[in-house]
Amino acid sequence: MRTLLTILALTFLTWTAKGQFQFEKYTAIKYKSFNDWKTYDKTEKEKKVHSTLTIPNFFDNGDTLTIQLTSFTDHWEDNSIIRVFRNKTETQKIFENMAFEPTSLDTLRIADINGDGLQDIKIISAYMGNGTAALNIRVIYFFQLPDNSFKKISFADKMSENRQERDFDGDGNFEIITMNLIGHEDHSYWLFNIFNYRNGGLVNVNSKDNYPIMIQFLYRYNYEVTNKISRDKMKTFALTLPDDYDAK
Question: Any idea what DSSP says for residue 105?
């Protein structure tokens, strides 16, 4: 995310800058990164703002991929549009209930996340809140299908910077790690679940490594899985799907 968002987030979660979480021992995915978002502000005449990024040679035959995110000032939080172009031809149009504020858009990342030999896309867009709400973001994945179209998966999450996917079991299908802030018995905890992309959607795979795990929220560095809650009790907080999950 942009510098301002990161500073706000680290004010409350400086532990993200140091140390290591349990899942960080596993192999991290490697991305190709693109940051050259172009903003076309048409609010005065058309009541909309476009954010566009083009990736040359994305497809195996050398075709270009362009992602265009459009939000509307008269319904800013609802029904934004994601358009996908191959060369200059629009191939997909997807609605997303997220205001794409140009300053809140993170790096666009490309990698084969699910191990099928096709390049996938990851976009993070921030909600621009204050305090711990500064960590509120929407993660949007575009999983490439054999016909070169995309399956869009998105959900609400919390992070101050990109959380890399990890390969917990070496199968090439990288696990997606989500983080939620929850309360239990007068304490707050960070809750981590893990998911795989399979058959067109996310599937909880906590059983791969005795997840979910919970880490107590403290105003200091803390990476330790809490001993205040049993692992069996932690399992009662497992998520079937990430918060505000959407698949199109």
Answer: B
Other residues' Cβ atoms within 10 Å of the Cβ of residue 43: 12
Can you tell me the distance from the alpha carbon of 168 to that of 87, in angstroms, rounded to the nearest whole number? 36
Report residue 2's pLDDT band, with 50, 70 and 90 as the boundaries. low
CB of 162 closer than 8 Å to CB of 154: no
pTM above 0.85, yes or no: yes
**Distance between CA atoms of 197 and 143, rounded to whole angstroms?**
8
Domain-by-domain residue ranges, the chain? Answer: 3-247
Q: What is the distance between the alpha carbons of residues 169 and 106, in angstroms, rounded to a whole number?
A: 28
CA distance 1 to 159: 9
Cα 53 from Cα 38, distance rounded (Å): 6
pLDDT, tens digit, 9 for 90 and up, residues 87-96: 999 999 999 9
